[in-house]
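Entry 14. Structure prediction run on the chain below.
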Amino acid sequence: MTDPELIQRAQQGDPHAIGELYLAHHEQTYKYICSRVGDPALAEDLTGEVFVRVVTRLPSYQDTGVPFQAWLYRIAHNLLMDHFRKTNRTFAVQLEPEGTHLPMQENPASQVETQLTLEHLQRVLTQMDTEQAEVIRLRFMVGLPIKDVAERLGKTVAAIKAIQHRGVITLRAVLQ
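Output returned:
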């Protein structure tokens, strides 16, 4: 069933439709939030709060031609901004999904170099253009296709490709 059909059913009070919307969007919302806060437990809490806000605001949701994912992303983004303001924290980035580790390398020097590069990448992402960093996070850390990133950010696919290209160039230049 499509998002518009689920939304219509959810607005009519169907709890199963709300559950289906949650199942369809929970994982990517969690990955996005986790890539911003760097703490899986906090990301899970904030993801839950996003969906509480979705359920609360769903009755007033109107299809304006903007995909539901973009509306959901905006709620998640605003929640993150509120969280960072309240905690007076800067953005963090989790580069490895929960439960994964850097691949074991035979050379300890290579392991240290890889870890230092990842830490440097975290710092660079927090300091680069926010739009570029956002596209990099959604494309490479969350793993969204370009089309989905474009929908979430309310931009064209061509614009996302251009932003991604500039972001990768910036990362490459800084990391070299």
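The chain is about 75% helix and 0% strand.
Filed with the rest of this week's runs.
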